[in-house]
């Protein structure tokens, strides 16, 4: 039975910790968030993951009952009796600048607790070169041990999508590399406990670190491209969703759908993990930077679609926002485009009431029911699809909305059939 110590119990760390526990490992999860740790030890989590018919809360409780998982705040204590250390904490990006403090802090703790023979496996998304150039020296300095000789060190990118974590830990092909072949092998053995898909063993850690960041940026760029096509099609008076469907009948074309922006922790941050290295080595990334700007501009574009449909002054307007998560059916609102759309509408003078039953965060514009959001609204904007929002109850919506002007819907998801919406008396604006 392997003993695993998981640093970081967020969207990645918690389901990954439970994935090891479900396969018989003895797992201690470490997080600095005391409330999170207390909640987990009571079997509480707000995550929306599931595996083989069981929700993550049931999985958590079962693994705790069977003594295979516990959460703690004391990282040093947790490492005393454990030789497999996995790091899943993030590198936050604020105002396009990355912040290494949480990573440096966790490395100091892990370094201080490191024993000869331990494996340290980094699974966070990082600036290429971080494991060798930043993490390794701290681990060696704090422990007095030497990487590749006294302890094993490896990097493996994490590729899961929230909501599909348990399935993707198991079935998504993975990639890893160690500081030396022995580290690669140790990490491979550990990963193989959970991952049944192919695990590529790359030539060096920098390849895996860079490929992770590039995977995320490639999706950001693909979305930016179709968002730009959307603006073109709109101005031309044709439907972007139909254009995408037609273009994708070409066997070598695979366009994504446009949307109100790109949110979450992973895609919007990715460029800001590549730029610091690009600056250091003198490489210009103008295409990637432009794509990011296109996606960052989408919430403003959506807000303008709402504003141009108003038949009252913005200062008199009430707008309902439906769906606040960073993507459909998620409860994660980190860097959600919805928050930027709301900010733009509010800055223009509109009163906004937003509803998303899955998002736990508090905002003063967030209300607790669909009814509260749409009552007396002049228009509504659909930003993400969500369980618990009855988008199709159009009679209900129409009855509650203001009749000061003809109610309208801005549909960024291509969710509504225009004929049905028009038939109920709404105006409809799509991306
Ligand atoms: N969320 C995703 O879908 C996803 C997918 C692939 C990769 N990633 C990457 O995985 C990493 C983690 O992402 P996440 O979404 O789980 O982040 P998260 O913010 O949900 O979780 C990180 C956790 O680390 C904890 N933490 C911070 N400093 C700590 C410390 N010193 N010691 C112990 N715990 C500490 C935080 O309290 C938090 O609970 C990031 O690098 C992210 O880019 C995320």
Ligands bound to this protein structure: nicotinamide-adenine-dinucleotide
The strand count comes to 17
Which residues form runs of ≥5 with pLDDT under 50? none
Query: What share of residues are in beta strands?
Result: 15-25%
Task: Give me the side-by-side strand order of the main sheet.
Answer: 5-2-1-6-9-10-11-12
Supply the CATH class of the largest domain: Alpha Beta
- As for the number of domains, it is 2
The percent range for helix content is 40-55%
Gap from first CA to last CA = 53 Å
Radius of gyration: 24 Å
CATH superfamily of the largest domain: NAD(P)-binding Rossmann-like Domain
CATH architecture tag of the largest domain: 3-Layer(aba) Sandwich
Average pLDDT taken over every residue: 97
Report the total helices. 16
Indicate the overall shape: globular
